[in-house]
Amino acid sequence: MTDVRSRTHAQAVDAAIELFTRNGYEQTTVEEIADAAQVSRATFFRRFRSKEDVVFADHELLLDEVVVMLASTRPVPDAAGNLEPDPAVDPYLEVCRAARLVFDHHVGQRETSIARWHLLQQVPALRDRELVTTHRYERAFTAYLRDALPPDRRRSTASIAFAASVVAVHNALLRRWLRNSEQDLRPQLEEAFAELRRAAVGRGPAEGDAATAQVASAVAARDGASRVVVTVVEPGPDPDGVADAVARAVRDALA
């Protein structure tokens, strides 16, 4: 994310988080953020709809980058409209590669990531927005896997289980890093992703789904502050509906 637009976003994000941390979220005005980011109020509202949006502006760009990355290996329909996966592409590895991109972004923006994390602990509305963002990553991963997995796994819960597990493991290790950013958790992340993949491909669809969820639960449990809630649903004609059902189950369990 090195183009002019992303640099402008990063400047506004950094300015906003610094002001929120110093002056308080509710007390900081859009005008103050625009001044600190050296943009006009009109420019601010062309790029961001609200104070809440600017906190997560780089996440929007990052999600776009993840979608583009996954699209590069998404199967292309043949003349009959059938999706033929590329045997040289491992969809599970591609999803892990996309999640790794997100992790590396946070680590690469150390001060901003830590300041935003502390801010989220103080502002409930921002924590809710973070949950929405997490759900969007899960949906992007699930949609990709439904196209890229072999036909016998596309309509199982494999795509949902693996996508949710990758996000859960990523978030657990990211939170651990945020609490102590001096540690290098990249090896643990790679090990956890490898465990998830082995669990997913080493068994039949139903068994693989359960094993994937168990691995994610074990890795997240080691974080000491995270847990994974798993629900099994039969995939219907609407994949988004299935993903929403999983999200509702998680919200209910954590309420």
Helix fraction bin: over 70%
Number of domains: 2
The helix/strand order is: HHHHHHHHHHHHH
The largest β sheet comes out as: none
Q: How many whole angstroms does the radius of gyration measure?
A: 19 Å
Overall pLDDT level: 79
How would you describe this protein?
- The protein has 255 residues and is mainly alpha-helical.
- The protein folds into two domains: 1-54, Arc Repressor Mutant, subunit A (Orthogonal Bundle), CATH 1.10.10; 56-254, no CATH class.
- 73% of the residues lie in helices and 0% in strands.
- The chain has helices at residues 4-23, 30-37, 41-47, 51-55, 57-71, 91-108, 110-122, 124-148, 151-154, 158-179, 186-201, 205-221, 239-254.
- α5 (57-71) runs antiparallel to α6 (91-108) and α8 (124-148) runs antiparallel to α13 (239-254).
Helix and strand arrangement:
Blueprint: H1 4-23, H2 30-37, H3 41-47, H4 51-55, H5 57-71, H6 91-108, H7 110-122, H8 124-148, H9 151-154, H10 158-179, H11 186-201, H12 205-221, H13 239-254
Helix pairs in contact: 1-2, 1-7, 5-6, 5-8, 6-10, 6-11, 7-8, 8-10, 8-13, 10-11, 10-12, 11-12
Task: Provide a brief overview of the structure.
73% of the residues lie in helices and 0% in strands. The chain is built from 13 helices and no strands. The two termini are 36 Å apart.
Task: Name a few traits of the molecule.
single chain; 255 residues; mainly alpha; Arc Repressor Mutant, subunit A; 2 domains; 13 helices; 0% strand; globular; disordered N terminus; disordered C terminus
